[in-house]
Structure formats: C-alpha cells, structure tokens
C-alpha cells in the first residue's frame, strides 16, 4: 500500500512541477510559489506514508492539486486522474495487505 501511494504522490509532485512551467507565463508570483510548495509537499508526504497521518495529508493534497487547476487549467484533469490513482492505491493496497496476512497465517 505504501509503495503504490508513494509512487502516486511523487509522480503527482513531478506533474505539478511541470505545470509550473505552464504557469510561469501567465500566473502571478504567489501562485508559482504555491505550486512549488504543493509539489514539494507531495514529494515529501511520500515519506510519511508509514503513518496514518501521511495518508490523511496525501488525501488533502489531492484537493490542492485539483484546486491548482484554477491557475493551470490542465491540472483539473490531472487532479481527477491522480485522485483516481490515489483511491486505487488505497483500495489495491488494502487488498494486497489482506492477502499477505492470510498467506502468512495471521
């Protein structure tokens, strides 16, 4: 579960970073800083997924990525895509952990 979630967050952070390149020509400086902070938080949160708080922060950041669509319109689509991948990582990860627990006899 952790590996899938971390992969989604890191790739999402890189996507937001590339979105900053699109925003540089039209957005104010404050929105560029906000996008940079969002990208950095996404990447750093991948390391927090050992705890429940990391999953909560990651879920909140999904809203931030979608909201960044008001700065870069393409981020609306990316926000929906990555939110779907985030949910899939949680669902598939839980199923994988349950199957591993059954195999180990716990």
Summarize the topology.
Blueprint: H1 2-23, H2 29-45, H3 52-67, H4 74-104
Helix pairs in contact: 1-2, 1-4, 2-3, 3-4
Task: Report what the structure shows.
With 106 residues, the protein is an all-alpha fold. It has one domain (2-104). The chain is 81% helix and 0% strand. The chain contains 4 helices and no strands. Helix 1 packs antiparallel against helix 4 (74-104) and helix 2 runs antiparallel to helix 3 (52-67). The longest helix has 31 residues, at 74-104.
Kindly list the characteristics that best describe this protein.
single chain, 106 residues, mainly alpha, 81% helix, elongated
Please count the helical segments.
4
User: What is the total number of structural domains?
Assistant: 1
The strand count comes to 0
Provide the succession of SSEs.
HHHH
* Terminal-residue CA separation: 18 Å
**What profile does the largest beta sheet have?**
none
Please sum up the structure shown.
This protein is mostly helical and 106 residues long.
